[in-house]
Automatic annotation (TrEMBL):
Listed name of the protein: Glycerol-3-phosphate cytidylyltransferase
Organism listed in the record: Crystallibacter crystallopoietes
Parent-protein residues present: 2 to 130 of 153
Keywords recorded for this protein, A-Z: Nucleotidyltransferase, Transferase
A single GO molecular function term of this UniProt record: nucleotidyltransferase activity
Domain Cytidyltransferase-like: 5-124
Amino acid sequence: TKTVLTYGTFDLFHIGHLNVLKRLRALGDRLIVGVSTDEFNAVKGKRPIVPFEQRIEIVRSIKYVDIAIPEERWSQKREDIEKYDVQIFGIGEDWKGKFDELEDKVEVVYLPRTSGISTTEMKRVLSAF
Ligand code: C2G
């Protein structure tokens, strides 16, 4: 089996998240998604609106996702690559170049983001009401 791995916060799940998961799943035959815990989001400088337990349950319910795991620290990517026998690491191109050091273990792909949608933009629009 060809296993694909990615990570993200997936707050206020939207079409941009769906598109990247759909595209990543199409690169192999199993997709594993690490969902950032609330504590790790604090490390990333993010404060999600939706609590971790709900964000991971939503991601787990997406038909393109085979396994959803907690993402607790930057350094777990290598462990997860070994643990799940991953062949491809993929993520949106906002991270372009940031995970190239994984290329000794896996193929690293950066996919185009979906324009016109982001959690930040959604918060801004909602705050106008
Ligand atoms: N994304 C996208 N298009 C958007 C918004 C997001 O393709 N309009 C993608 C991002 O590129 C990422 C995924 O959706 O691949 C999840 O986005 P975030 O939840 O913002 O993830 P992030 O906080 O960047 O977490 O260790 C890696 C980090 O945990 C990544």
